[in-house]
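Hi R.,

Here's the chain you asked about this morning:
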Amino acid sequence: MDAMRWDAQRLDLPEPALLPGMPSIRGLLRSVQVPEFPGLTFHEVRAQSALNHVPGESAMPFPWTINPYRGCSHSCVYCLRGDTQVLLADGRRRPIAELQVGDRLIGTERRGTYRHYVQTEVLAHWATVKPAHRVSLEDGTELVASGDHRFLTPRGWKYVTGAMAGRDRRPHLTTNDELLGFGRTVESLATCPVEGIAVESDAALRVSDIQALGLEMPMYDITTGTGDFIANGVISHNCFARRTHEWLELDTGRDFDSQVVVKTNLVDVLRRELARPSWTREHVALGTNTDPYQRAEGRYTLMPGVIQALAESGTPFSILTKGTLLRRDLALLTQAARQVPLGLGVSMAIWDDDLHHALEPGVPTPRARLDLVRALTDAGLSCGVFMAPVLPGLTDGVEHLDAAIAAVAAAGATGLTVLPLHLRPGAREWFMAWLARDHPELVPRYEQLYRRGAYVPAEYRGWLSARVAPLLAKHGLDRQSGGTARNIVDAVTGIPGDPAGSFPIGSLATGGLPGVRPKRATATRGPAGPEPADQLSLL
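And here is the predicted structure, written out as tokens:
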């Protein structure tokens, strides 16, 4: 009966139908909930492309990525009503519901102490249904959004709704706040380019009212390269912060959703792209945005086809994951390693059982991930480990670090990188609320460490690096001992253990076809290491 129910929505239909009541998501084939994945909804879509190019200015040491899924059970959804007008790069506006992946928009980026308007691109687009709130501004602008959506104020990003204390405590809008952006003057920008100018405005964007509408409605969101966009003339955050949520894997928090977009035709699209004469077989990375071995992979089994397509085309590739499901594809990975350079990385963070259950519920335990590392290295494959994030005052003690590094070494890892906690907007509010409940004595220390932004200061990074270095040497995971003893040579990586950020030996494809090498990071290194750029979502 289930087969008949979905027969009209087969993936091979030229004009696929939608579920009754489902909003029209561009490219959506069907949305489905299945008993073996309670609480998750899979939105099956046709992908227009498989290979994503990494911007040239990025410090990431690879030029291409593949993301079989958008979001996972650890993701959040911030969203706006479908008729919200989004500012395009050419000055025109378009309803958010009608945007497409690849559209050029106006976002913002910080340059020194000031934020400037810049061009950016739509990387993902989807819909959901959430309770609606109306935010009214003094100039007459109205925005209908979920309570979890955020807008930029002079005091930083603030949610539409929140509380001053308790479980709902987070920065939120009040009638004392003023939003940043153009306001209604955005309507006249079609003949006035804004790219490069500083974010300044005389518009009357003070919040005059916030009202719960008492109903749920279809809402839309996008991911852009800058993590924001201009919605009805004000600067709006998007779901870019889900990268940090995925890194922390806090999948039971109230700010997280259960909508997973699945690129059902990914393998076919990838094979076509790899067959193009213009493809130069550069290093491709998987797991840099969302985990390719998340729970959805157990249903859709996209990765075997991806692995085979890359290997058969002669394309070096690497995979970073927290998912022990990778073990299913061990034979395929072993075969691929005979055809192309292959890098494998496993991310793990917390060794204390109570901390793990509090911060990584529903995620494979670190010990289960160590078993994965052992299975990979026993099969003759290299596997680097990211110990991330290290939590100041909780997991940065010598005894804790020594036990963790010893366990990683015993599992046969070919390299190890240690990274301290990053607290980007979104993750910061959730984590600090948890810290205040479970470890209130540490709140002042974290407020001091993260007072300047998402990253710990250079002094802490240097202190952690000095603490970790002798432990890496003790257990044979420093560059000299690890690389030589484990026959890993010519690794494109930073110094293992440098908390500023690097890739452990074995986690990247370390070469390529003749004349083809992975993209190298271009960040310069000072005495205390580079200021961290955008880190991988899984860390």
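One quick note: The chain has a mean pLDDT of 76.

Cheers,
M.
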